[in-house]
UniProtKB/TrEMBL annotation:
Provenance organism: Silvimonas amylolytica
Protein's UniProt name: Bifunctional diguanylate cyclase/phosphodiesterase
Coiled-coil residue spans: none
Top-level taxon of the source organism: Bacteria
Annotated EAL domain residues: 24-278
Full-protein interval shown: 588 to 868 of 868
Length: 281
């Protein structure tokens, strides 16, 4: 009897797994189609300098509105893109779209100093990445330093020998590199010696706990110290309220980004946000 019920639950789970695999495959195909048909969109979240409230730049974040599922979170489709090999073409689409948008702002006299895009470790396996970026900058007549590539601490984790040289080539073009989600990955400190980053972004999980967690406070203070001594711009992401802003300001953070200022917005809405931009102080 025990055996029978075991078999029963086994087939139940196996059906469930099957269903999940099918759903996954369907979602993967839909994502492939969305990339091909250019149905993804970028939203832009402002990053503001703590000292004087000026715009530091914006971060481009990919949005996917699925015809029947509605809005699919990047937390879902980015891992899917990575596992299915779609992240390569997704990353290139994001780069091109961000450059196109920056050039559009430039031609209309809208002052957005730089655009940051998120790239996955896999994007740095592609030896074509540096020439592609170089061609994009030329095509859209952009100063290289106005493009920022956000990388994570895990970028070198797979031990792929070409990754570091591709990062260095991109850096040599004059493009800026920013270390995203700082504090959550592996060997953060040793990576700082090897990667030519000019910016650190303290992960939002630390910011979230700042007001009631001594450890989070000590860690964010350590990050600002490291950043200052290495001459890096230090950004706090995920700033949701004034308490956090004031703590980060006291600690000396240079730039803040988060819902307290604005959520990520479609380009036209970012433009109106810029016009009625509230001062940070
Ligand atoms: P991330 O690069 O660390 O981006 C910050 C995330 O925090 C974004 O989530 C943003 O909407 C969210 N956020 C901003 N301010 C706040 C705040 O005050 N509070 C909270 N709780 N969250 C805030 P999003 O857009 O859902 O993206 C999640 C992650 O997905 C990103 O984290 C990034 O790792 C990845 N991602 C998004 N777009 C792309 C992309 O185009 N390419 C790649 N490779 N990854 C992407
Ligand atoms: Mg990011
Ligand atoms: Mg981040
Ligand atoms: Mg993050």
């Amino acid at each position: 009897e025990a055996k029978a019920s075991y078999r029963g639950s086994y087939s139940f789970f196996s059906n469930e797994m099957n269903l999940r695999a099918q759903e996954r495959l369907a979602l993967e195909n839909a994502l492939r189609e969305a990339i091909e048909k250019q149905q993804l969109r970028l939203h832009y979240q402002p990053q503001v300098m703590v000292e004087d409230g000026r715009l530091h730049g914006v971060e481009a974040l990919t949005r996917w509105h699925h015809p029947t599922l509605g809005e699919v979170s990047p937390a879902r489709f980015i891992p899917l893109a990575e596992e299915s090999g779609l992240i390569g073409s997704l990353g290139l689409w994001v780069l091109e779209e961000a450059c196109r948008q920056l050039a559009d702002w430039q031609s209309r006299g809208i002052d957005v100093p730089c655009v940051a895009v998120n790239l996955s470790p896999t994007n740095f396996h592609n030896i074509e990445l540096p020439p592609i970026i170089s061609a994009l900058l030329a095509r859209y007549a952009l100063e290289p330093a106005r493009l920022v590539l956000e990388i994570t601490e895990n970028v070198l984790l797979d031990g792929n020998a070409t990754t570091l040289s591709i990062i260095q080539e991109v850096h040599a073009l004059g493009v800026k590199l920013s270390m995203d989600d700082f504090g959550t990955g592996y060997s953060s400190l040793s990576y700082l010696r090897r990667l030519p980053v000019s910016e650190l972004k303290l992960d939002k999980s630390f910011v979230h706990d700042l007001h009631n967690d001594q450890t989070a406070q000590a860690l964010s203070e350590a990050v600002i110290r490291i950043g200052e001594s290495l001459n890096l711009v230090v950004v706090a992401e995920g700033v949701e309220n004034e308490i956090q802003l004031n703590l980060l300001r006291q600690q000396g953070f240079h730039v803040i980004q988060g819902f307290y200022l604005s959520k990520p917005l479609p380009a036209p809405m970012l433009e109106s946000w810029l016009q009625r931009r509230p001062p940070v102080n």
